[in-house]
Amino acid sequence: MRHIVRQWIPFLFAIGTTLIVLLGYIFPNALAFNYRGQRTPAQHILAEWAVIVASFAFVLGLWNMGRVQIAKAFRRRRIESLLFVFAALATLLLWLAVIFSPDPEVSDLAGQAVQGVFDYIISPVGASLAALVVVALTLAAFRLLRARRSAGAILFMLVVAAVLLTSIPLAGLEPGLFSSVRHWIVNVFGMAGMRGLLLGVVLGTAITALRFLWPRSDS
Amino acid sequence: MKLLGKRSSRVKIRPLTSFQDLQGETGRAAESGGTIHIALGNGGLIGEDAVTSLAALEVLEELADTAILYNAPPIVTVGDPTLLPLAQDILRRAHERHGLVKRYNPDQVRFIAPSPVAYAAGAASVVMTENVMSNAMIGAFGPEVSLLVDAGARRDLPQLAAAASPGAIGALYPATDRLAVGEELYAAGAQMVEKRRYTISLQAQDVLRLILAGFIAITAALAFVVSLLP
Q1: Contact B42, B79 (CB under 8 A)
Q2: pLDDT at B9
Q3: Could you say which residues from 182 to 201 on chain B have a Cβ atom under 8 Å away from some Cβ of chain A?
Q4: Dist. CA B165–CA A197, nearest whole Å
Q5: CA angle (A72, A77, A83) in 5-degree steps
Q6: Element holding B181 (H helix, E strand)
């Protein structure tokens, strides 16, 4: 019984859902997916279930985040965790004020404050982190030249330098030569390599998915 | 022989340094009194990165037993909440198998942030501030993984990575030479623990690859011949 509950029921559920989706794309019909470009009842039900699972997972994630940061704030006295806890509580209070406040003016003010948090704190911080990615990549390139002076590393740096330099509109220089060099590097060699990589990824994805769907019996 | 389903001789798997060193790094981290950080990326179970994330969870599953025997359970960071209960379940089951349920701490698995860049920054903070002796990045990442790699490099930590996305591979290549690229990520299970179901799936992958490469070559040759015709 345990074998059936733990292995066969999840397997049959996963296979059944997969077949509904896959066959609906190949043989469109009113029960499964893609019937005349419109959502079908099966698609609607499966999408709703997925949203419910994802929402519960998000709540679990927030709970986990809160637990970890509170433990770091009060047991290990980490200032950044303490700031996180206060910021989270403040944002939560603002959201509660937006939703439950009986006074519409208070609700509006709280809504503006929440919008302000996103517009003036979260968005600029996100943009700064994205800018830091460029700095981190540049530092990684310098470390590559220092730590690994192999043919592959030198070729990598030369290609990066060539693509970046040919992307800059340098005044007074012939643009045709630069654009053709960049075209060959990116659209011919780069695209060929990427297609080979993605073909391998597709094969690995298909085989791994089959391995997960099949009930396990390790031997 | 393989197509007929007959048991062939032992399959030889090309060594992948990313996964071969992972269990050794866990032991070294435990000897130093620290632990290993495993970043599973920001893919989840819903979306195009689902199978990549599942392959990363396979690596965690194979590593969990070793880590718990060394009494150095890894710190696992996830960027999608759907991976959180799975990763926690893997660690909990590993503790159960060794009769160490009381030592299981669900906070060893941490959901950092749903946004990719915020996840990379938060995971980098874990690497910088926790007692981490080794940094492993296995899963669905983008170029923002460079933030995480930079944090490990600043602490001179040994770093291993496995990624399938071209953007992440471009960011990881300068940072570590222990890098598994593309389909090598899906060979992790076969590399770390040579179970039959993994080696058979690798053989199936090889056969499919040969068929696909042959098909591409034949159609390219036919297209070339047709283009020459008047």
Answers
A1: yes
A2: 55
A3: 182-183, 185-187, 195-198, 201
A4: 9
A5: 75
A6: strand B179-181
Kindly list the domain boundaries of chain B, sorted by start residue. 17-194, 195-230
C-alpha of B169 from chain center: 13
Structure tokens at A190: 């780069």
Q: What span, in angstroms and rounded, lies between the C-alpha atoms of A18 and A38?
A: 19
Dump pLDDT digits (tens) for B144-158: 999 999 999 999 999
Burial of B148 (0-12, 13-18, 19+ CB in 10 A): buried
Structure tokens, A51: 């949203």
- Partnered with residue B162 across adjacent β-strands are B138, B180
A143 touches B: beta carbon within 8 Å = yes
The three-state secondary structure class of A215 is: coil
Contact B118 A129 (CB under 8 A): yes
Chain B hits for A205, Cβ within 8 Å: 51-52, 186
Give the pLDDT confidence of B196-228 residue by residue, as tens digits: 777 778 888 888 888 888 998 999 999 999 988
Q: Looking at per-residue confidence, does A25 or B143 come out higher?
A: B143
- How deeply is B145 buried, as exposed, middle or buried, from its count of CB atoms within 10 A (0-12, 13-18, 19+)? buried
Q: Determine contact: B23 vs chain A, CB below 8 A.
A: no
What is each CA distance from A208 to A38, A84, A106, A187, B56, in whole angstroms?
31, 38, 53, 30, 11
Q: State the pLDDT at residue B4.
A: 47
Residue in B125, B164, B208 closest to A201 by CB = B164
Contact assignment for B54 to A212 by CB distance below 8 Å:
yes
| Residue contact A216–B197, C-beta within 8 A | yes
**Which three-class secondary structure state does DSSP give residue B144?**
coil
Write the CA distances from A138 to B118, B119, B125, B147, integer angstroms: 19, 20, 20, 11
B39 and B146 in contact (C-beta within 8 Å)? no
Pairs of CB atoms within 8 A across A/B: 146
What are the pLDDT digits (tens) for B38-66?
999 998 888 888 999 999 998 898 888 88
Average pLDDT of every residue of chain A:
81
User: Quick check: A133 and B144 CB within 8 A?
Assistant: yes
User: What pLDDT score does A184 carry?
Assistant: 83
pLDDT tens digits, A18-66 = 777 777 777 776 666 555 666 677 777 877 888 888 899 999 999 999 9
CATH class of B17-194: alpha beta
